[in-house]
Amino acid sequence: MGVPWEFESCLKASIDAAYRTERFARWLFPLAEIDLQIMFFDTHAHLTWPDFDSDIDGVIERATAAGITRMVTIGTDAESSRRAVELAGRFPNVYAAIGWHPGDVDEAPDDVRPTLRELAGAPRVVAIGETGLDYYRLPSTRGGSVEDDEPYRSRQKHLFRQQLELAVEFKKNVVIHTRGDCFEDTISIFENYADRLRAVFHCFVESVANMERIFTLGSLVSFTGILTFKNGQNVRDALMAAPLGKFMLETDSPFLAPVPYRGKRCEPAYVSLIAASAAEIKGCSLEELSSVTCEAARQFFGGLE
To answer: Which residues form the domain of 54?
Structure first.
């Protein structure tokens, strides 16, 4: 079974009392029929965001109590990448990916490689990214002109290629972000590097046909709490079509908290809720889902012990 949605109101009413204690996982997950001995990984979280500054120790403790044994915290610019490396050095079950997010290119230098190169060789850096393209919030949607959009797209593509080159240099795979009408541009750029590295298209919301193009290149997708949203049928359809071993699970914390916490801060412990939904959609056991998604993550993220 998946998460018992009829308990949603009870869960919401009780969460404030149980949330910050170690009893949290053991109180929540029996309702979701999740065995706490089954482990999962959170392959994409932003643990350096200010949302976690006040209780990062509690966040890691709750994740561990919920059976989330590995977490990859993702850099989106120079500072968050540095902090991701620091966080990975502080917690033995946290690893880092370092990169420059396409939504932050206005603040990026013309060449991000020197800054990221200083971090890429750190012992617990397991991937390059989050990189890619994002056409959702072009300058014309933020007070700029349509004429500003093409230079902005070009700059994103330029920094995307730089990070793909860096990934090849350090023999690491890449975490790719796509949002807005940019999939064709994204995959056309990545195809030129697909013989030398792999990618995970994170927070996958594209069509089944586009997912199959990713698989043809030897790369992966990953799924978030959108699987549990009422309006997430297209994502559930993609998961249904994805072979076991071709996808991973993630929270994208602090964003996209699964039901029943939609709209609240997300955290890595909630991978267990995402996993419950994914297992129900795939018609497989949690044990099998754990085995295939964790093995996919180990193979993808070099150094993920």
So the answer is: 5-300
Q: What SS3 class is residue 226?
A: helix
The answer to whether 250 touches 269, Cβ cutoff 8 Å, is no
| Structural domain includes residue 221 | yes
The yes-or-no verdict on residue 205 having pLDDT over 80 is yes
| C-alpha closest to that of 228 among 176, 268, 270 | 270
207 pLDDT higher than 50 = yes
99: domain CATH number is 3.20.20.140
Three-state DSSP state, 83 = helix
How far is residue 69's CA from residue 39's CA, in Å, rounded to a whole number? 6
Cα–Cα distance for residue pair 153/130, rounded to 1 Å: 16
What pLDDT, in 10s, does the model give residues 29-45? 443 444 556 999 999 99
Residue 66 lies in a domain: yes
Q: Tell me whether residue 305 is in a domain.
A: no
> How is 256-281 classified by DSSP, letter by letter?
-PPTTSTTSPP-GGGHHHHHHHHHHH
The per-residue pLDDT for 305 is 75
Q: Do the beta carbons of residue 97 and residue 70 sit within 8 Å?
A: no
Whether residue 93 lies inside any domain: the answer is yes
CA nearest to 225, candidates 200, 262, 175, 183:
262
| Average pLDDT rounded to a whole number, residues 239-259 | 98
Sheet with 40-45: strands ordered across: 40-45, 68-74, 94-98, 125-134, 174-179, 199-201, 220-223, 247-249
- Give DSSP secondary structure letters for 29-61: TTTTT--TTS-EEEEEE-TTSGGGTTTHHHHHH
Tally of domains within the chain? 1
Asked if 112 and 159 touch (Cβ cutoff 8 Å), the reply is yes
Contact between residue 286 and residue 294 where contact means Cβ atoms under 8 Å apart: no
* CA–CA distance, 191 with 193 (Å, rounded to integer): 5
Helix (H, G, I), strand (E, B) or coil at 292: helix
